[in-house]
Specification:
By secondary structure, the chain is mainly α. It has 2 domains: about 10-190, Up-down Bundle (Growth Hormone, Chain: A); about 210-385, Up-down Bundle (Growth Hormone, Chain: A). The protein is built from 18 helices and no strands.
Amino acid sequence: MLDRRPRGLLRGSVGALAAGLFVYGFGQELWFRFLPAFLRHLGATPLGVGVFGTLKDFLDAAYAWPGGVLTDRLGSRRALLLFGGLTLCGFVAYLASPTVPVLFAGLFLVMAWPALGLPATFSLIGEELSRERRIAGFTLQAVLKRLPIVLAPPLGGFLIGHFGIRAGMRTGFAISVVLALATLAALRLAFRSRKEVSRARTPGRVTLPPVLRRLLAADILIRLCEGLPDVFLVVWVLEVAGLTPARFGVLTSILTATAIVSYAPAVALAGRAEKKSFIVLTYAFFTIFPLAVVLSRSFGALAVAFAIGGLREIGEPARKAFIVDAAPEEARGRVVGLYYSLRGFSVAGAAAVGGLLWSIRPELTFLVAALLGAFGTLGAALFLPRAAAPDRC
């Protein structure tokens, strides 16, 4: 009989990783979402702010593959320490010289932990947890990545409001440096007791297993469904529905809180339902969300729509566990990195396409998104197997 309880998830390397995800995320979220306003304060043009956002999205996609290669060559624990150290260097650069050129250059370092470290996170959970406990492990990872988004920005806003934007941002940078140093020290201590395994000793061509190609095709359609209207949600709420920015903030909180709460069923049902069912369910919510938004004009209706948006996360731990299950053990980091790089580059232009559709008719952005989501959901339901292929040693 499988032990379905999340007992022991917070022990050892997985527990250390969970703490690292939360602490690093909390330190970064103090100020990261205020960077566009800080860039404007420092004299950046609107185009410059847009380029900064584009660079962040590009690094998200481009870093996944080299992150996977380094994970396989160094081992997941060494790789995480390396990526955490690079991000710490970025925090120090921001604290030492918060200027527009440094903010741009430092982004290459700041993105190391969240982007380069993604394959290492997957690999470590795959190594430490059995198949039946991976959904619980990825649920823990997802919650601890999102809690800082709820908790840290209000504190960052307080710092900026109390000290002014320049001093407030530098205070946030300083807190990030202290938290990163403490986290790296704790991770090094926790990882020291475990023998590291480096798998990629010989070069070789890595391709996605067939089952992951089918998942990737559906996932790309779903991420296009998400990406087309994503930056226009606030525009819809403010300009079409006529609500206030404060009301939009409340809607965002509803979405995030629903996402966090929705992870509980994934843990409770982890051993009772196949991963495919969770994946198809989460894709269905991705599809319904833009339809719910486009049909909403009042705050109450939009609150329901954004709660549906939060439910899009219910199957994310199962999807990540599915990827780890299907990836061969000896190339897990590279396979995860390849998957996320291909997905990231494939959807990089979604916001621009959404803008073109919006210029024709605002509703069109959301309707086309829902259509793409429906194709992705149908593809996952028809072509994904009930379980990923076993790990290959």
